[in-house]
Amino acid sequence: NTWKPPHKEFSGFLRVRGAREHNLKNIDLEIPRDALVVFTGVSGSGKSSLAFGTLYAEAQRRYLESVSPYARRLFHQMSVPEVDEITGLPPAVALQQQRGLATTRSSVGSVTTLSNLIRMLYSRAGDYPAGQPHLEAEAFSPNTPAGACPSCHGLGRIYEVTERSMVPDDSLTIRERAVAAWPVAWHGQNLRDILITLGYDVDRPWRDLPKKDRDWILFTEEQPVVPVYPGFSHEEVKRAIRQNVAPAYKGTFSGAKKYVLHNFSNTESAAMKKRLQQFMESAECPLCQGKRLRRESLSVKFAGMDIGEISRLPLHKLSVLMQPFADGTALRGKRQQAHPERELVAQRIAADLVGRLEVLLELGLGYLLLERSTPTLSPGELQRLRLATQVRSNLFGVVYVLDEPSAGLHPADTEALLSALEKLKAAGNSLFVVEHDLDVIQHADWLVDVGPDAGEYGGHILYSGPPPGLAAIADSKTAQYLFATKVPPPHQPRTPAGWLELTGVTRNNLHQLDAAFPLGCLTTVTGISGSGKSSLVSQVLIELASTHLGMELTAEAEEGEGLEHTAPVTLGGRITGGMEHIKRLVQVDQKPIGRTPRSNLATYTGLFDQVRKRFAETKTAKARRYDAGRFSFNVAKGRCETCQGEGFVMVELLFLPSVYAPCPTCHGARYNAKTLEITCNGKNIAEVLEMTVDTAYEFFADDPKIHRSLTVLREVGLGYLRLGQPATQLSGGEAQRIKLATELQRIGRGDTLYILDEPTTGLHPSDTEKLVTQLDSLVEAGNTVIVVEHEMRVVAASDWVIDIGPGAGEAGGKIVATGTPATVAKATRSRTAPYLAKFLE
Ligand code: ADP
Ligand code: ADP
Ligand code: ZN
Ligand code: ZN
């Protein structure tokens, strides 16, 4: 082991007494300051509850006490932690990985603050056309009125609705929904009925209608209000009006264009935006060529480029460009003599830029462009961007709390991460890191190992001290991997049952790439961060395969991604073979299984349907004619009406975020008293939802169907979860394993393509071993599994490897090596090979 004692004695300790957040067992603990402290333990053991839920939450609470109640509302406030006392706690900054929080308008340039510097550079040291006055820095931002292109309002793209975009199939009649852009369901029928009253022919194919009628229906600004007689023909309507028959109601017409544009700019729903977007045509703004700025702003140049061009350089090229300005070697000739002060400004700003870029390049992010929007970044990339920004912030005396900074990093990139952490520490800060990666754990000054297991079976501190001491802790799963270097048993690669072939894939940094994935095998796709793994697997393969299967990609997948930056999809590529063996596509990701407390593991897996059936079959339930629906907390009959089955009610507080309190009627049970009178083997439905999977496994031993679901949940390591634990409280790793369990219980079809992108994120090496076993069972049943992965334990256990690279961004995007793990481990150009080889010895 490579542990070196810290270069200095610890300068002080922070002390925790009586921590009880979530599953923590009233723990006491001492942790050094000004050190790299790594929190380890199996997934669900309580690491985050300690590092984020207790230490960070308490630091934030103390800070917020000092700010005005109004300002407090602006924070994403954590709840007050369950802890008796914490002393010696410095102010904390959390660099947590969160999906979808960044706003659409934020970009790599804005989160790193590099854009501010570049705008300043253009404003103060740019080359202006003769006679043009100098512009303020904000004139170089598309998000200000002073900078935004007047044609596209700073979006870079313009959107139009046309007959073709709103009526994709003109052989349909209006009744057959020719105007696809119109709303579905009732409102759509309403518009159709209004057209009938108005005398338009809704049963003639769209293309046979007169142009005048088509234009009016799509583009009119008029909004006539007419009587509506649902189900009547136009003749019948006329007769009804003559005879003074009262209409069902009066309906207001709205042209399709008006409907699309109005709702597009007013809806809050990402799914609605996504739906409407299909009916719009978008094109690069011709005025600014997609650069989003006014002409005057774009006329200012630096190093011969306008600010839009410079924002499209990968960061490593930007750094090369700025270097000569920073060190003063750039020759700017005559100008230099004319405006020496401007040259000085240029040098100062360029030097600052180069310094900031250096950290970003070290962290392996040199392939990103300033203008790249943050919602398209992976959570790991975003966290490293924020980390790099902190390294240059010159703060000291704070504690940075990070979760899994190694997520998304190839082992070759981990060194750079450690050096960035080292810099923050050297500047006088403390680092609290939740991490599973053994390389990072080995570099800790201090380890806090939480366990021994997950949930109720975890929450104890097994060890807190310098890493070598962990070796003596028999109960620690971390110790087994950190010291014994458990090498997995050799794996005999399977023979492919055929090939899923992709040809001419063009997307992001992939250009005309051909790739083949073996069917009936476990394939891992490897390569350094930014090499193109996700572009190939999670973007192109998923889109092509789902289109092939006629599946619609869910809007949920794109949630939070507004329209403004959705770059034109340069989708090139076809599936040229193998799809005949695939009937289903399943993406097993770490996204929540539901966004409200109304979903939980029992509802998601279908287990709850069986349980409710059991309750409906009891004697009392039958006597009272209670059906299975009665036992759902989402249905009016059986649930508590005070809280509508939520179990808690929201209390609005003036000036403070709303808080949730247990429901005063059912006290959290979610059901009404009558429903709770029904018991099955002595327990009511609320008590069953309170059970852990392990307890329920004993309790339902007599019911094969329920037992089957519970068995797989235990096999994926979720025995500790409560059946009714709300989806909102589950970690990404837990959500992913619930999805896997749901698949494993319907196993045996053999015709499914499973795709996973970095499934080991948040998983302890012992959990990773379990994951491999489960993926293996999916393959054993004849399915095909494709995994994007950095964890060599998984790669070594796969049947086939596709290594992408050799570098990141435009320096990557090629298949460097492909074959069995043993073959790829010997490939000379592959950066993965040496790391993989270690796991095959
Ligand atoms: P780790 O970080 O070690 O993976 P966590 O601290 O996230 O573990 O979780 C520890 C336990 O607390 C788990 O059983 C988890 O389900 C539970 N838990 C996590 N978040 C919440 C929450 N918001 N409310 C209740 N329980 C939670
Ligand atoms: P990996 O999965 O290997 O880390 P990615 O496929 O995410 O790599 O990225 C490959 C290249 O494509 C990088 O240069 C990255 O910045 C770019 N890229 C990835 N996704 C997007 C996107 N949604 N928009 C623009 N560029 C992207
Ligand atoms: Zn424009
Ligand atoms: Zn209630």
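Residues 99-103, 554-568 have pLDDT under 50 and may be disordered.
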